[in-house]
Amino acid sequence: MENRLYVSPGPHIFAKGSMPKTMRDVIIALMPAVFASIYFFRARAVILFVVSIVSCVVFEAVIQILMKRKVTISDMSAIVTGILFAMNMPPALPLWACVLGCFIAIGLAKQLFGGLGNNMFNPVFLGRAFLAAAFPTFMTTWNNPITLDATTGATPLGMVKFSHDLSVNYANLFIGNVSGSVGETSALALIIGGLYLLARKAIDWRIPFSYIGTVFIVGAIAGMVAPADYAGGLFYILAGGLLIGAIFMATDPVTSPVTKKGRWIFGAGCGVITMVIRLWGGLPEGVMYSVLLMNAVTPLLNRLTRPRRYGT
Amino acid sequence: MYNITAMFEKTFRGGVHPAQHKELTVDKRIKSIPAPPEIILPLTQHIGAPNNPLIGPGDVVKEGQRIAESESFVSAPVHSSVSGRVKAIRNFFNPVHGMARAAIIENDGKNEDEPFVAARLHQDFTGQGEDPGALPKEKLINIIKEAGIVGLGGAAFPTHVKLKIPKGKKVDTLIANGAECEPYLTCDHRLMIEKTGKIIKGIYLAAGILGVKNIFVAVEQNKLSAAFAFEKTIREIKGSSRQNIPIRVTVLKTKYPQGGEKQLVKAILGKEIPPGKLPLDVGSVIQNVGTCLALYEAVYEGKPLIERCVTLSGSCLREPGNFIVRLGTPLKDAVKFCGGFTEPPAKIIAGGPMMGITQYTLDAPIIKGTAGVVFLSKKETEIPEELPCVRCGRCVDICPVNLLPTEIMRMVKYSRWHRMEELHPSDCIECGACSYACLSKIPLVQYIKLAKQKELKKK
Predict the structure, then answer these.
(1) Number of CB pairs < 8 Å for A and B?
(2) CATH class label, B5-29+117-301
(3) What's the whole-model pTM score?
(4) Sign of the C-alpha dihedral, residues B285, B290, B293, B299?
(5) What is the CATH number of domain B38-106?
(6) Which positions in chain B touch A10 (Cβ < 8 Å)?
């Protein structure tokens, strides 16, 4: 026969969808929040996005070349990391710090562990944790939205925690007209993105559901027990990095469990740690540490929640 | 009233939903492909002990004449599907094994048939118009063995072995498997519509041999026409038959691998077959509906297994359909009968596209286990690039036997054989649903097969 025949083991047909397509879905899902951040933080947000995406892609390519690996920037995972990194940064962050953070995220958290799929910790949050430890001032300097006035420690969570100012404007909190990290403020935009991801089956609903649910329950109980000190359950969902964390960070499949049961525990664990830090810790926000800590127990969760052996 | 249990479709946990593509052939009546000028009969076409040839080059054989057999109980003889002269016995292309010993027989076109040797076994009974189905079960099992019948769903395990229940085991349920969950394949569906009565008689034969109390016919929801055909025929024969065991037609969810033995038993009986055990161990035996038809033909018509119904399908084929094909017919003759190709195929698959085996030549013959041959175009098939696993968990969600394919794959990649046992790769039914579902197109089932082999070697 003239034409060549493929010979391979089965299956010979494959489900629709692929890993790069899922990455593309995540990028699409991030767009509402990206536009919201650009609206609220103007040029600062644009600059951070550009610097962060370019550094992540360049670091990925350069490190892969240096480590004599195949360059895989076409899988778009570095772009996702870049977008999410900028979204988790305060608007006034010096650009050199942003580049350094991206280096930690791509170089240390991702490539050193073996590249995509092999990292233990969420690269964005590991990079952010590095910056928070090395440059705490930069990481706690917040700007008011739109006007970009510098106001220190005035995120909604900070106001509640340190000033016991419980006069929360829920409308502003919902649309994102509050100070905070570039991409975390608009609950509306993040929820739209989350619904898109769920519709595209790009994330499992169990993690955001159990994460947000746990935060709501713990927040509501705290609000009822000590109404003078703590705001209610809804506040703790809308404020700070909870929604971006629950929808986009904790759901990173690489660093979360592969079993359904494991995902329930993972989400609930993130919620508990977040609220412990927020209510009793020294920091106003705990999303980053909660996700990193739960990343660390993910291999254990995978082991403990193995499905029952069939027929036993 | 139809008593089809379609109120809610029974099924198993996990599984995938590949595009069916059954519309290509499902409405085509079964046609016979004429015997080709030359047939290639692999000497062994079953799972079990290999056969030895009974003939040599130059011998003249008749249609239905036994040409290879084995002393072993777990074996099935092979019969010539044409009359003619044996050209050679040598290694030849084999759809399952790449190369295997085969008899090459020139068809003389005389269609001289030899009375099936087993037919003589019950001459005394049939002569007086008695029902051969009433023969003692040892004799029936012997006829089935003599007829060379194997599981026609694809596994090709000798049927008489499956019907002989080992001492100490009790069987109360027979499931006739018409699930046919592989995409493209419709030969069982067509047989169930066109040969309903004979299949039912075959089912009663198997049920009688096994002495079961419960009989189920399992079809997927996309074969309701087959379910209705069964219901209708069952009602028609009710009065005339002395068989009083009711056949329950059960409609299952259309989902791959619904036709797997473990999945059928779970869906119909709600029982999980324990690791390393057979349906037998939970009191059931499963027979493919095509096999049931072969049982009927052997016992009532004295016909050994020399032909079978095959689905020839795929977008490359000009006239896809379902065909009765003489065993040993080379693919090229079958393709010619289907009007040739509309475009050159990129993959030729013996079996379905999920578990089938790719062929590299059209000279390979159709054998007992070939339920279908699918010709896929370059657009329909691919050999995708393997990307890194991002641990999305799809393979874990869909594995029908609760495995963690991604974890097994990692253990294989990092050669952590000492920790493999705890992941039970030996439970894998090799359905390939994990590879199908994988977002990174990792051939997970291949990694699991590797782990399985290593585990077996350890023991």
Answers:
(1) 158
(2) alpha beta
(3) 0.92
(4) negative
(5) 2.40.50
(6) 349, 351, 353-357, 432, 435, 445
